[in-house]
Amino acid sequence: MLKYPDAKVIPLGIGDTTERIPEVITTAMAERAKALSTKKGYSGYGAEQGEKQLRAAIASTFYQNLGIEEDDIFVSDGAKSDISRLQVLFGSKVSMAVQDPSYPAYVDSSVILGQTGLYQKDVERFAKIEYMRCTPENDFFPDLSNVARTDIIFFCSPNNPTGSAASREQLTQLVQFAKDNGSIIVYDSAYAMYVSEDKPRSIFEIPGAEEVALEVSSFSKYAGFTGVRLGWTVVPKQLKYSDGFPVANDFNRIVCTAFNGASNIAQAGGLACLSPEGIKAMHEVVGFYKENTKIIMDTFNSLGFNVYGGVNAPYVWVHFPGRSSWEVFGEILEKTHVVTTPGSGFGPAGEGFVRVSAFGNRENVLEACKRFKELYK
Amino acid sequence: MLKYPDAKVIPLGIGDTTERIPEVITTAMAERAKALSTKKGYSGYGAEQGEKQLRAAIASTFYQNLGIEEDDIFVSDGAKSDISRLQVLFGSKVSMAVQDPSYPAYVDSSVILGQTGLYQKDVERFAKIEYMRCTPENDFFPDLSNVARTDIIFFCSPNNPTGSAASREQLTQLVQFAKDNGSIIVYDSAYAMYVSEDKPRSIFEIPGAEEVALEVSSFSKYAGFTGVRLGWTVVPKQLKYSDGFPVANDFNRIVCTAFNGASNIAQAGGLACLSPEGIKAMHEVVGFYKENTKIIMDTFNSLGFNVYGGVNAPYVWVHFPGRSSWEVFGEILEKTHVVTTPGSGFGPAGEGFVRVSAFGNRENVLEACKRFKELYK
């Protein structure tokens, strides 16, 4: 921006929502805010785990018939915060595995808690983390026969950044792998509403998953809540340590000590999201970004690139074989003034890829695609 | 409540606010919420550290002329969350000191991070924590000549639960003690607006404190934000490790990895709190609870008890010499149906005391005091 002060820079880098929050949701938040000035509507500390009605609505909306109950849901201020609270729960002595590439918060929070060794520059990895390579060659699902046993397995599906959603069969393998190894899966389903194909939207669709997995999720990408801050974590009561003690009891202790509940106004918004009108409105938001995704995918496909993701996620993962992600990122930024994200920032297996986010307004997405076509025609 | 289903139980236990949030503040939050449905008013991810305008307003309202600048302020979802984020920053290998008695989150978060040894039942303390005894005998300020050197010193003033506010001279001693020992003070000033006497409202009123202290605070008890969730932490850029690296740089890393900013709607409320009308309204809220405090203090004084706190804090610390806190708590609950908090829950030096919170509506406080008078006349 210093170099080209007049350039219209288009941000398709970080996955930041751009579209208005549907009115049915903001009206509920505004009403809750105003009610806080009334004797009847005022409320102080809520339950650290979230308001009962919201926990029940999350359970029935996203986990109907999956054996997940209201008291398995812990409402939070977002998945990112909960990932770090989970790391505090796990402590510094656990070993962990992550998809490579994946959302950086898993590795970063692990490093901060002291679970890892030093960064090894030659292989671009932190020591003591098991990187599960996910590339087009293995359909973005790790070859579990080559994955070392760890205490914790972070798994994000639909994946950020590759946009790939694991199939039922793949997740069944993952659950069995965790069961065989006595591992806990931290399943990140923050993009589940973007799934179009017949693929699981929750790890709890896999029988037995409740014994080996917990799940973090968020309203951010469904309702444009990136700034409002609201998410949740499911810790099923069937998930137990080897000594039979429920993990949920420990997580409850962490939540009560390290957190004081999500904002009551945001929770009112979450409840509105899960009303029939709210669900319809969220699908419209998701549908809008999915149209963006298609426009971006079609563009790169038409230019002859190998394009991944997109179908079940708001991220398009474009392959530039043999090139450095940062170099391609720089080329795109320099020549089109569009900000993308270099794939290698998500892990060494992201090298040679660039992530294009579909979170943007339509005009910007169309303009960005026009510029991509000029650059790579 | 099972035993006396018809009893009108009055909660003066946990410090939960009961009074309506002033309209100037909720109006701003409602407007921000509604604006999120407009193209112009929508915002996604904000800065993890908080909105620039709010950071500036906090710096100028609470730290004018104290050398604290906008970029030293980290806006959060509350002091409790920030205390745990600070513990993640410090890690498991530090040693810590706490006032005894004090707000349990300091010790609890330290235990969770693995900084302590096991709980020692005989002395009712966790091993490896330095408990700084604060009782009427030492004017609720520790005898620092008997305090062992630790890496971290948690210090809450006005104190929860004793209601005692440290003097300028005492805090000057504390800062010098930290300087001599290379310790970091985590100063909790969540009740600063309740100070009536000429005592510091911030540790940064003490010259040189910016080199040894950081400060956590909150809108909870000023504006009734216990449910809205908004606080802040000040990490001055002058606060450095012994190798010269700024603590703020590490805290910034933690905040960016473990947190995604406070709710934008809550931040709009915070900004309204710091407008001239908002400040006036907060003083009215604080004034209301201070009147409650006086009513409770006068009651116990008239009954011949030794009563502490109250003047600079919304907590009254009542001495029942020779008796167990839990026994007194049970007696009060059983005979008056008023919930207080047993002092020993805040640390072994709280034994023999009961904390009565002034957070309640006037009718309840008057009724509770009437019942206290009947019980202890």
From TrEMBL, chains A, B:
Recite the UniProt keywords alphabetically. Answer: Aminotransferase, Pyridoxal phosphate, Transferase
InterPro entries cross-referenced by the UniProt entry: Aminotransferase_I/II_large, DapL/ALD1, PyrdxlP-dep_Trfase, PyrdxlP-dep_Trfase_major, PyrdxlP-dep_Trfase_small
Q: Which cofactor does it need?
A: pyridoxal 5'-phosphate
What Pfam families does this protein map onto?
A: Aminotran_1_2
Annotated Gene3D superfamilies: Aspartate Aminotransferase, domain 1, Type I PLP-dependent aspartate aminotransferase-like (Major domain)
GO terms for MF: pyridoxal phosphate binding; transaminase activity
Q: Where is the Aminotransferase class I/classII large domain?
A: 8-372
For this entry, list what GO says about its biological process.
Answer: systemic acquired resistance, salicylic acid mediated signaling pathway
Q: Which family does it belong to?
A: Belongs to the class-I pyridoxal-phosphate-dependent aminotransferase family. LL-diaminopimelate aminotransferase subfamily.
Q: Which PANTHER family match?
A: AMINOTRANSFERASE
Q: What is this protein called?
A: OLC1v1033306C2
Natural source organism: Oldenlandia corymbosa var. corymbosa
Q: What does the record give as the organism's lineage?
A: Eukaryota, Viridiplantae, Streptophyta, Embryophyta, Tracheophyta
